[in-house]
Amino acid sequence: MTPQVQTLTGPVPAGQLGTTLIHEHLIVTDPELDRNFPHPEWDEERVAQQLRQQLRHLAELGVGTVVDLTVPGLGRDVHRVARMAAGIPVHIVVSTGYYTYTSLPPFYHLNGPDRLVRGPDPLLEMFVKDIREGVAGTQIRAGMIKVASAAQGITDDVALVFSAAAQAHRETGAPITTHSDPRTTGGLEQQQRLAEEGADLNRVVIGHSGDSADIHYLCALADAGSYVGFDRFGMAHMGQDSARLRMLLDLLERGYEDRILLSQDAAVFSRMTPPSWRAAHAPDWRMDHLHSTVLPQLRAAGMDRRLQDQLMVENPRRLLAGSSDE
Q1: Domains of the chain (ranges plus CATH)?
Q2: pLDDT per residue over 239-267, tens digit each?
Q3: Which of 65, 71, 205, 276 could pair covalently with 17 via S-S, beta carbons 3.0-4.6 A apart?
Q4: Can you tell me the distance from the alpha carbon of 178 to that of 46, in angstroms, rounded to the nearest whole number?
């Protein structure tokens, strides 16, 4: 059977994904904060227009698929995204998981196996239901699992998320992607924990690795089987693109082209870093930055079409579909 990938509008044959942005966000919010302390820059209709405009622009640039890694903890709302993106000719892969690199809400301390309110693990239950049945009462099934850890390492609560993610991955086959802290080589701890939990590291992306200046760290991640995420292009407050490009070219020179994924971790709207702040501090942090600036620089450095397709088409396809050529 032809491998299928779940998207906002249903399953898509993996071979039809095309050029894929593997680590992006559409709308990042904080629902409780939004209700009680609305952000002055949020205007739903304006954001909807911007979302449609940006996705149409990506389609014109040849992008076929955007993976939206906005999960609970970042204000995931698939109803809103489905409404805003209706009719846009770009596949959108939605994600499950939980975004925290410190602690979980009190609910998770009181509900679950061996908790005050005994029952199944609510994290695992949500992850599996999102993947197999649909997110939040919809028929939109998640195609990716997102987890996070940062400089604090894998805290007790983060370990619960990683454990549930690995089990959901084993049960459903959905790939895992991470938010990592490259400054503390945190991807190695993430790999170790996921491997201990039975995850297939060939179906894992260690996100944000491209911000590291340690080539041996990047090689170690790739040698263990994971994809290395160069996914913050344009994010000037977290590093310079020139440094990311140097590390990327070094890794390519060492033969790791089948372990690299490119993206920008951008958003149409993010409450955490709102539009006015981005305009002032990271004006290139957009979902078209790879195509407008980074890929031309790579081509000038010698990247041919075959290699570009490897990085932007084939590697994301293998990750998302879990095809037999892994």
Answers
A1: 4-321 (3.20.20.140)
A2: 999 999 999 999 999 999 999 999 999 99
A3: 65
A4: 30
CA–CA separation, 97 vs 243, rounded Å? 30
Known binding-site residues equal 23, 25, 146, 179, 208, 265
pLDDT digits (tens, 9 = 90+) for 42-77: 999 999 999 999 999 999 999 999 999 999 999 999
Q: Positive or negative, the Cα torsion across 92, 95, 100, 105?
A: positive
Say if residue 323's pLDDT is above 70: no
114: left (phi over 0), alpha (psi -120 to 50) or beta: left
Binding site members for Zn(2+):
23, 25, 146, 179, 208, 265
Question: How many residues make up the chain in this entry?
Answer: 326
Residue 44 neighbours by CB distance under 10 Å: 12
| pLDDT for the residue 1 | 73
